[in-house]
Amino acid sequence: MKQLLGAFLFFFVLVSCQTESKLTFEPLHLKGENCESCPKIDINIPNALDNSPVSQAINRSLQEEVISILSFSEDDTIDEMGKALQSFSDSYKELRTKFPDEVQWEAEIDGIVVYEDENVITFMLNSYSFTGGAHGYASTSYLNFDKKKGVELENWQLFEDLDGFEDFAETKFRIQEKIPQDSNINSTGFMFEGESFHLPNNLGYTNEGLKLIYNQYEVASYADGPIELILPYNEINLYLKRKVKE
């Protein structure tokens, strides 16, 4: 009986520690005005609840991402999401006064936590915007945070050996996309700048591995859509600064 009680207490403590290491969020939902001459705006992102440094960094970075997607001007006073929504709406209404037949604009942003351990938490933001033209634009962004230091991480800060990782990623990219290892990286139709492989603007931790995503136009045409590459942690831990236990 004592052995069973001891095992239960150990399991309880283990679960409690794992739960305590997780950050707490509530959904934050913002919508634009509901009127015939208003653009459609729908924002859904997590909002960290405590006042820890990492929670403050998360909320600040998510807000900055929303502002950058919605803002059409260089106005430095747009420093919060409500102002960004208003800026997007005002830009559309101003255009409608000049071109009454302008097709309704849209903006949709959805953010979720895609990975979290005791060291790192990663968010994925999927956004879609239409501001006229032949089609809208969809993109995916990853935001990685060091939970212990309470800061957002730049891509290069994820690695102990960035050059080694980039070489490894290129090999895997060529295999996935059927590009001969001894051929130019653009030989099958890609559009890497300078005809040299480079990492994408967005990469992030996921449960399956580190995901690299090239958004539309980044290295290929719009019609090709986003290009994704997932690298399992057991193959890349030697390159990472923050190792992932599997």
Automatic annotation (TrEMBL):
Listed InterPro entries: DUF3298, PdaC, PdaC/RsiV-like_sf
Deacetylase PdaC domain boundaries: 37-136
Q: Where is the DUF3298 domain?
A: 167-234
Q: Write the protein's name.
A: DUF3298/DUF4163 domain-containing protein
